[in-house]
Amino acid sequence: MYFSPPKAARQDGKTRRLWLHAGLHKTGTTSLQAFLTLHRDALTQHGLLYVRAGTNQYLNGNHNVAWELTGDRRFELDTGTVAEAVQEIADFQGDAILSSEDFESILHRPKAFDPLLRHPLLRGHQVTILVYVRNQAEYLASVFRENRDYHGIDWSVSEYLDRVLKDGRIPVRDWVFQFDLRAIAKAWPYHGAKLVVRNYHKLAGGSSVNDFLAVVAPGIPPGENPRLNVAPTRLRLRDQDAARLMERFAADNRRVCKAMGIEPDGLVGVPAWGEMAVEIA
Questions:
Q1: Which of 78, 73, 61, 81 is CA-nearest to residue 20?
Q2: β-pair partners for 98
Q3: What is the CATH class of 17-279?
């Protein structure tokens, strides 16, 4: 449930900002959310609120808020709603952060964000959607492993590959995994909300935590930087499958990098799997 945080004085007269961190999945989100939770009080003193609504002792991210917007069956009324998150943000005099990789599921249909981003209480906030992306071959391998090992989804690599090549995204249960970076970019701007895309392969300071702070709060030192949810071994696609994926999205990846002013390293060319990566059978 929502508890009103201590108010941070806003002396500079600047517009308050809402940072909505929307994943993607498998881009260091678990580590980032753990950091934000651990340092919530310290961030508040710096005038930066990590919203409590939608989190609990089991959820470091604002997943319940995302689940309400996406229609996920896991949504619970007593874990913090969109309305509670909005009130918490409106009550705070500084900037605010919402973080959940499950916002990814609606990045291609921004109208689904309306109950949050068009809420009257946030009319005075400048909203920025922050998305971390990785090359499609590595992302598919990571999604494949996550779904197989933790969610019991036994699709073959070919099933994933065919859907990504055809549609640029994969709906799986309550999630939609986004692979078409240009489609995401074309869906924005959204009613004045800015989209910022970051290259997961070129993180400032070498981690999702350092990179996030460099973008959102460059004056705040990173402190502890845990790496969580790290797989003991990496999976890789077969060379021919990876080549098909990278060829399919290469031109659009370059366009997004140019438009967003980010380095294309890692998002184009041959994926750097590493010698220890195990090929998916």
A1: 61
A2: 20
A3: alpha beta
Cα 96 from Cα 155, distance rounded (Å)? 38
pTM, full prediction: 0.92
Please state the separation of Cα 49 from the chain's center in Å: 18
Q: List CB contacts of 85: < 8 A, sequence separation 6 or more.
A: 2, 51, 53, 54, 62, 65, 98, 116
pLDDT at 196: 96
**Going by DSSP bridges, is the β-strand pair 175-178/169-172 parallel, antiparallel, or unpaired?**
antiparallel
- Neighbouring residues of 232: CB distance < 8 A, sequence distance ≥ 6: none
Total residues belonging to the chain: 281
Query: Comparing C-alpha atoms, which of 39, 11, 6 is closest to residue 212?
Result: 39
* Bridging pattern class, strands 235-236 and 278-279: parallel
CA nearest neighbour of 6 among 68, 82, 93:
93
| 200 pLDDT above the threshold of 90 | yes
3-state SS string for the chain: CCCCCCCCCCCCCCCCEEEEECCCCCCCHHHHHHHHHHCHHHHHHCCEEECCCCCCCCCCCCHHHHHHHHCCCCCCHHHCCHHHHHHHHHHCCCEEEEECHHHHHHCCCHHHHHHHHCCHHHCCCEEEEEEEECCHHHHHHHHHHHHHHHHCCCCCHHHHHHHHHHHCEEEECCEEEECCHHHHHHCCCECCEEEEEEEHHHCHHHCHHHHHHHHHCCCCCCCCCCCCCCCCCCEECCHHHHHHHHHHHHHHHHHHHHHHCCCCECCECCCCCCCCCEECC
pLDDT tens digits, 179-195: 999 999 999 877 779 99
Lowest-pLDDT range, 4-13, 26-35, 173-182, 189-198? 4-13
